[in-house]
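Posting for a labmate who doesn't have an account.
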Amino acid sequence: MISLKDKKILFLSVSFFKYERAIAKRLSELGAKVDFYDERPSNSNFSKGIIRFNKKLYQLQIHKYYKKILEEIQGKKYDYFLLIKGEATPAFFLEEIKRNNPHMEMIHYNFDPLTEYPLLISNLQYFDKKFTFERSDTQKYNLHFRPLFYLDEYRDSNHEFQDFEHDVVFIGSAHTDRYVVGEKVKSVADKLSLKSFFYYYAMGRTAFKLKKLFDKNMKQFDLKKVSFEKLNHEQIIDYYKKSKAVLDINKPFQNGLTIRTFEVLAAGRKLITTNEDIRNYPFYNPNNILIIDRENVELRPDFFTEAFSGIDEKILYMMSLDSFIECLFFKDQDSYWNV
């Protein structure tokens, strides 16, 4: 087992469905002393929107927030700095922590295409090790390739369950063309007499209504089909247990695999995905993974009747959070993932 015993880690991350908390917890369990901060001053819809589209308007709040972090960690010495995404993280902060910790290794991880977040590119120069889940960005920006991971509780749910309530389940945020694609899948499933359950989540009613005004895909969204209550991991796992297959709809401009991909397969459930690039991963098995065309959805009836093919223990480990941590802090896994 990997060990970070007595290593001091400064960890900043974007908030992404509490996975950042799970990472911080696991780092502590592996022996590290972790100081964790959200990389955004606020996670309100307004703050996220300002940071995304015009960070300069929010510069004063960002400056004050990062000055406060520097005050709180003043005098502390760290072995590692880990930043996940860092959309709001200013250059002066990166320069200051490196100046105060000249021997500290600085690690960056990103789970979005850099073409969608160009402001992140200029900060890459401050990092010793840089990772991305987007294969096309590895050569373009000289980054290491590391996909996302699953949490152990998803693998712990991997057991035989005969009384399936659903053939197809979708649980995910309401964005881009997810609703359009999801409704196509539901229509085809209905024609095949497959039982389906769709849960579209949006962070706020007002923000969602504004999106509907400006996004052509969101305009088609039936407001009755969106929920403003986020499901926790236990609830999601419960749906997986009762489902034969889980649908994953990636963003049209994104080839990196969603975290849902790893959770579904670790849970021993079949995956239906719009992401063609999944063919290029060591765990790809057409018996477990059905790739669909988001424009012309087709479902194979036999996909739902054939049993899930077990995944090799080595592959399951490589997909895990521990392997993710091992890759970032110890040794890159380029030779494994670039099959």
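Reply:
Got it, the structure tokens are right above this. The two ends are 25 Å apart (CA to CA).
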